[in-house]
């Protein structure tokens, strides 16, 4: 992550000192993996493409990553879904991408966890726009929107998420080899608990209404905080 995100994550973990932002920036400048694999924007500044998502989990983007270097259980593909409102990311590593696996991912990771969405934005992948998936979405009255080459920004949120996953994978798992899939869920957790520039909040906070409890928080403080939250919820 960049220096600003690193400083914010340290602050949420309970650390603070006056020069922490400057120190985080300097640390990132000396980080070999960040300098080697960090994303450098080269496009000129332009207006944002506004895509309306009226409430959390009403609009999802879906995309595929791969093939990646072979990992355990022959997994080399990743299916990624991102909510346009909270920026919450769901992802699953797979050995192969089939229409049945896409349907299973949608059912288990989106519909059963967050409810039936209003819109799902797909790219031009054959597995994503197959008739089998169209029938599945039609069964639950989910509107399918397909991004086109001439208007790729329609699914730009998921493409950006894919870039984050690949970037962090290169930085973190350079020596992991076959264990990269086991480390994948740590990467996913890091993305979910990192502050986004667009919202100013972490996806975890926007999804669950609270930040992640710091591992430095004493046990008795956790009990006190839970009691206080329960009292507030009863008002």
Q: Could you explain the architecture of this structure?
A:
The chain is 44% helix and 12% strand. The chain has a five-stranded mixed beta sheet, with helices on both faces. The longest helix is centred in the last third of the chain and has 17 residues, at 156-172. α1 crosses α2 and α6 (156-172) crosses α7. The protein starts with a helix and ends with a helix. It is an alpha/beta fold and 235 residues long. It is globular and about 55 Å long. It has nine helices and five strands. Mean pLDDT is 76; it is low at 149-154. The chain has helices at residues 3-12, 20-30, 32-37, 99-114, 131-139, 156-172, 180-192, 203-208, 219-233; strands at 59-65, 77-83, 89-94, 119-122, 143-146. The protein has a domain at 54-213: Ribonuclease H-like superfamily/Ribonuclease H (Nucleotidyltransferase, domain 5, 2-Layer Sandwich), CATH 3.30.420.10. This is Integrase, catalytic core. Pfam families: Integrase_H2C2, rve.
Topology:
Elements: H1 3-12, H2 20-30, H3 32-37, E1 59-65, E2 77-83, E3 89-94, H4 99-114, E4 119-122, H5 131-139, E5 143-146, H6 156-172, H7 180-192, H8 203-208, H9 219-233
Parallel strand pairs: 1-4, 4-5
Antiparallel strand pairs: 1-2, 2-3
Helix pairs in contact: 1-2, 6-7
Q: Biggest β-sheet, characterized?
A: 5 strands, mixed
Distance between the termini: 39 Å
Which CATH architecture of the domain at 54-213 is right?
2-Layer Sandwich
Radius of gyration: 19 Å
CATH superfamily of the domain at 54-213: Ribonuclease H-like superfamily/Ribonuclease H
State the order of secondary-structure elements, H for helix, E for strand.
HHHEEEHEHEHHHH
* Beta-strand proportion: 5-15%
| Overall pLDDT level | 76
Number of helices: 9
What class do helices, strands and sheet pairing give?
A: alpha/beta
- Report the CATH C-level class of the domain at 54-213: Alpha Beta
Q: Helix content range of the residues, please?
A: 40-55%
The side-by-side strand order for the widest beta sheet comes to 3-2-1-4-5
CATH topology of the domain at 54-213: Nucleotidyltransferase, domain 5
Number of DSSP strand runs: 5
Organism: Corchorus olitorius
GO molecular function: nucleic acid binding
Pfam family, one: Integrase_H2C2
Protein name: Integrase, catalytic core
């Amino acid at each position: 992550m960049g220096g600003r995100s690193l400083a914010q994550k340290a602050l949420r973990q309970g650390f603070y000192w006056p020069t922490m932002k400057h120190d985080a920036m300097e640390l990132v400048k000396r980080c070999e993996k960040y300098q080697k694999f960090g994303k450098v924007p080269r496009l000129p500044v332009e207006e944002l493409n506004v895509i309306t998502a009226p409430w959390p989990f009403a609009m999802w983007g879906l995309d595929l990553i791969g093939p990646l270097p072979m990992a355990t259980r022959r997994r080399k593909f990743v299916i990624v879904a991102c909510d346009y409102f909270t920026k919450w990311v769901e992802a699953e590593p797979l050995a192969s991408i089939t229409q049945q696996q896409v349907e299973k991912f949608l059912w288990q990771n989106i519909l059963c966890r967050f409810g039936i969405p209003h819109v799902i934005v797909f790219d031009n992948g054959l597995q994503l726009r197959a008739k089998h998936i169209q029938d599945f979405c039609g069964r639950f009255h989910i509107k399918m929107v397909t991004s086109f080459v001439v208007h790729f920004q329609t699914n730009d949120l998921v493409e950006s998420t894919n870039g984050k996953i690949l970037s962090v994978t290169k930085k973190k798992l350079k020596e992991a080899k076959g264990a990269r899939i086991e480390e994948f869920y740590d990467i996913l957790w890091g993305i979910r608990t990192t502050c986004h520039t667009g919202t100013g909040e972490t996806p975890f906070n926007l999804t669950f209404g609270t930040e992640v409890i710091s591992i430095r928080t004493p046990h008795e403080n956790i009990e006190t905080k839970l009691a206080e939250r329960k009292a507030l919820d009863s008002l």
